[in-house]
Amino acid sequence: MNASEFFLNLDRRWIFLVIGLVVLLPIVRPFDLPGIKPTDQSKNYFDTMNAVPEGTKILISADFDPGSKPELYPMLEATLRHAFKKKLRIVVMTLWLTGIGMVEKAIKDNVAYAKDHFGVEPQEGKDYVFIGWKTGGSAVVIGMGVNILEMFSQDNYGKPLAEHPIMAGVKSLKDFKIVVSLSAGTPGFKEWVQYGVQKNNLTFVGGCTGIIIPEAYPYLQAGQMKGVLGGMKGAAEYEKLLNIPGTATGGMVALSLAQFMIILLVAACNIIYIASGRWRKP
Amino acid sequence: MTFLEILGIWFATAMTLFILSFLYKDNPFYKLAENIFVGVTLGYSVVGAIWKTIYPEWVVPLFSSDVGIWRKGFLLIPGVLGILALARIIPKLNWLSRPAFAFVMGWGAGVAIPTAVDAFVLKHTSKTVSAILPGGEFTFGAVFTAFSNLLIVVIVLCVLVYFFFSIEHRGPIRVASRLGVLFLMVAFGIAYGNTVMGRMALLYNRFFELKQNASGESYFATPILVLVTVLGLIVHEVWIKPRPPGTEDVQLEKPPEGAST
Amino acid sequence: MAGWALWLMAATLQQAEPPKELEAFDARNDDGESIALWWAKMPYEADGVEYVIFASFTEGGPTLEAARLGSKKGYASDRKIPWWAGSRSPNHHYLEVDTDALAAALVDLEWPEARAVKDEIAALEGSLSHTTGEKEKVEAELAELEKIKPPSAVADEIATLKERLRWLDAHRPIWTERKRELDEKLQTRIDSLSDGVLYYQVAVVQGTQELTRSGWVSAAESDNLFNFNRIHSFGLAIVFCAIIVAFIQVGKRRELFLRKIPGLAAVDEAIGRAVEMGKPVYFLPGRHDINEINTIAAVTILGEVAKKCAQLGAQLKVPHTYVLVYAVSQEITKQAYTEAGRPDAYRDDINFFITEDQFAYTAAVDGMFVREKPAAIIYMGYFYAESLILAETGAGIGAIQVAGTDADHQLPFFVTACDYTLIGEELYAAGAYLSKDPTLVGTLRGQDVGKLFVMAGVAGMTFLSFWFTVFGYTSAIKFVLDLVTPY
Amino acid sequence: MFVKRTLPMLVAFGVGFAFALQYYLPFSFSEDALSATSKWYSIIASFALLLGIVSVIQSHARKIQTQSVGWGYSLVLFFAFASMVMMGAFSAGNAETPPGVKGPIYGTSYGWLYNNAMIPLQTTMFATLAFYVASAAFRAFRAKTFGAFLLLFFAVVMLFGKASLGVTLWDESIGTIHASLQLDRIIEWLMGTLNMSARRAILIGVALGMIATSLKIIFGIERTYLGGKGE
Fold first, then answer.
1. C403 pairs with which residues across the strands?
2. Integer CA distances (angstroms), C117 to C66, C182, C184, C435, in order
3. Which of A208, A275, B32, B113 has the fewest Cβ atoms nearer than 10 Å?
4. Residue A86 and residue A237: Cα distance in Å, rounded?
């Protein structure tokens, strides 16, 4: 069997291996390719976060479940990193019961990341707090617009919320400079806009899965949402703006590389096929 | 994390890896995952049928005092048909199930006719002919749009010609149907290329999950299980003697009578 | 300038006359739950000026706001209807009002008790939904508590729960009964008040100021027998049906030509090869349930394939994902074996059910492919994402693969991975092609004539649309297009 | 043979005719009939599911009984099936815990199985498509004929145009000539014109096939589902 024969009848497990490696590599070690051009919406998200001074209090609501993790978890990570880097003070919550575990992990990992990479040491209670989950969706948002401490009397771990220094001077949603919702559906940014943003005149940005991004456009046009990150692409663009390649960048790179790998394989295969003179046979 | 959560992560990771191991070759891990998969989904559909359909849609209204006697009577029909469909289990009473199947097939056929006319024929015809010429100024863009719209009509007609069954494809019909096949190939190529990225994203999501489960918090589920799977495959390959080809795990509890002539 | 315009507008509004040509009538082509109001475009229509529709049970009786419409919105020309089903005049307003909801709201004005009755119904609904499933929950808790020893430690809790159970048992039936009673009472009162007819007035409002108000009009809602919006679709359905039925008759009388479908010729070849190699033939009937037409086409083909397998002595295997398809296929296979003169070769495990889940089915069938290495795999029917997983696995074991599907989104994958693919309509033609049954062949000729009809329509309308655009008859285009637009 | 053959055909005819007409009849009885019968369909199918379960249990029980090759896997299947059904019964088919009730982890035991067995298995099986989509392309995208060349050429164009790397490469070079040459515009045109029109033709053809097959069922010409067309 000569070389061209071997290549044309290549055991497909080699192709499986190549594709697997190409997709895996950028996850294990995220790197960047010139290919991600931030859209205006992602820039707006970044600029809104970037414009506030050190020490500003912001609220992040991670409204997603494990099903939407690959798209929204990188957004949560990048937002936390951005906030820690800028030394913002953050209150994190979720409207989705199944989101609790992911938020805990994201906070823990990124506090460690901030220590390693930005030289800051965010303190729990002072710089950040995770207030957990409450049932009710839109009712929670409405309640927070009136009095947060009544809605969330304790943090996620049962400690009275009022004892955290970060909550000093925070009464309602109005006391946050920015509210962020990373949402995978209902309850999500729609509830935040309808029941929180409009009434309390909040600066609101969001992130969402690729499927529901069309639902965000009316709010963006109306200015109720200042910017939005759409799907894994949006997360990758945010990472690009932050200049910290993360898992979303890895994802975009992986997809690009895998597609190019297929193009390469098909091209090579056809060149060899034609060069070996087989195409002349009927 | 609670014990159950960690157990869940381990289980999910193992299932993911076992399914992926099939890409190398069929192996006991895959068979294990496959049978768990089939069992679990069977159970899921039973639970769904009972708790999401039969109980709320049938039992509850049948025994509820809110529902009038007429509606209850109507509700008996699908129940009876459903139970009659079960008569297939008993070969002699097989025919009892026929009214149920007739109902289902007749219903499907009836609903399909107007749907086919409206949603397929009318919708696609109207979209094809609605905008041959764009209004407005005579620019390059407008000319190109007009060309594209005309091209759509030509492609639709050519591909439809390809589908003629009862006319011999000769002369101009042959040309049109040949063009139709080529247009189909173009369309299939485009559709193929268009879906690749979505599929890659699915794989990326699985790998993402595996990476998340590799951390110390989940007690290094991914690396340990990868090791176990790989070692298991090696053991299976090297130490467990492969059976002679052909007999391997083919379920031949009976001789295949149909094959003997 | 601006001042002038404002003054002028105010002046026109001052002497506003009530909307002209006001009419109320049953909204056509619906299930009789709404009426339509119709009135002429008036000169004072502007941003900020609104039409408010008031409704009442009697002429001159107490009114309720039924709807509100910006004065520059809701023209009849916005209606989504074809030209023959009603006027699409740009100079008139058209508004549909839901009468059932309106009557339920209006009853408050005429019947002092109504509010209280509705509140009670709402409260009862609340209590009922709140306690739904509570009984089971309490019982479960009780069972847990009763396991604890010694029982005296939890005696209080048990007593409380038992009390709760008694309370639930006592109250829920009463609530249900009471709610039914009240619902009935309310409905009777509404019926006696309205008698199906409601009265309407249209007022013109700017801000909070009412400028003018029309006289009363009334209309009764009614069920409509036929949806005239869809009469063209109805006509077309009849035309197609007539063509097909006619050619079924033609097919019975004389033999009709049938072109070759390459994929189907390959089916015989594939079965033959399987017999030579002593390996099974797999037939996958798609992943739609039996009520879908593509599955019916698939099981018809299964009948023919089974016949061939029985004749040649190939081992057939048909994995199923829907139970009803499985049951039907069993009958068909059995019949096919009998018709082929090999009832002895029929086994009940030719058809087997796996699971309803898409990917579990795929995983299981994939495993079978690899373990049994069938010589031929035939995919017929509707498929989803599993198409390529299965077809690539099949190609990997070197089976001859023939696919046929009308799932346009999966065709590219079958075309790529299989040896032969029946595209779209060919799936429906395959049964006729394989069986050569004259009635079925006649149907195919009917389908062809139907296609010709559609093609002539597309070509003709393209020409007309082109011609109308060039000569500027834009309204004529709409006229023609309506004939092929689904409503 | 009235009950065995004529009655089913009458049922199919009556039901089929009535529901073909239903689409054009807007009155409330007609609408109610459609929504009621679509529920009937799911009820019948739910009952019939038992048929499938019996078949699966029979075939695997036979395997276990005869201890044929791989009977251990049949045991696994039974175990998985039984635990899903039991957990489902305990939690009344709810994967999520209703608020206020304590469950194992943010869900019921049924939810645990659903989230940790069904979801990963489904998504992983689906994800294997990524590999197959590549290997099928490698194996089959060969310019053997002009048609095959078109297929592979346009697939490669789409692959290039959908990758963010490809978009950047193109738009920074050729795309700078004119805005209408930008890659997303080209992709849009390919999808909207070449791909969509061929699919339209397929669907129009399919519609005619559907109408013909439906008619055959309604008129009893097609009655393979009753077992054969004879008698």
1. C379, C421
2. 21, 7, 11, 67
3. A275
4. 19
Cβ within 8 Å of residue C456, ≥6 positions away: none
* Closest Cα in chain B to A108: B217
What count of residues does chain B have?
261
Residue C339 has pLDDT above 80, yes or no: yes
Complex ipTM: 0.86
At D97 the pLDDT is 55
Residue tagged 């696995």 (tokens)? C393
Q: Do C363 and B37 touch (CB under 8 A)?
A: yes
| A208 close to A185: Cβ distance less than 8 angstroms | no
Give B-chain residues touching C423 at CB under 8 angstroms.
184
Fold exhibited by the domain A37-250 = Rossmann fold (3.40.50)
Of A189, A262, A248, nearest in space to A219 by CA = A189
Specify whether the CB–CB gap between C64 and C101 falls below 8 A: no
CB contact under 8 A, C425 and D208: yes
Domain spans in chain A, listed from the N-terminal domain onward: 37-250
**Which residue positions in chain D have pLDDT lower than 70?**
1, 95-107, 227-231
Q: How far apart are CA C400 and CA C395, in angstroms?
A: 8
Average pLDDT, chain C: 87
Contact flag D200-B189 (C-beta cutoff 8 Å): no
CA-nearest residue to B21 within chain D is D128
From chain D, pick out residues whose CB is under 8 angstroms from the CB of B145.
Answer: none
Interface membership of B57 toward D (CB under 8 Å): yes
State which residue of chain D sits closest to A279, comparing Cα positions: D144
Cβ proximity of C22 and C94 under 8 Å: no
Q: For position C367, what pLDDT does the model report? A: 96
**Contact across the interface for B260 and C347, Cβ inside 8 Å:** no
| pTM of the shown model | 0.85
Q: Is residue A268 less than 8 Å (CB to CB) from chain D?
A: no
- Helices B171-212, A69-85: axis angle to 10 degrees equals 50
pLDDT tens string B145-184 = 888 989 999 999 999 999 998 888 888 999 999 999 999 9
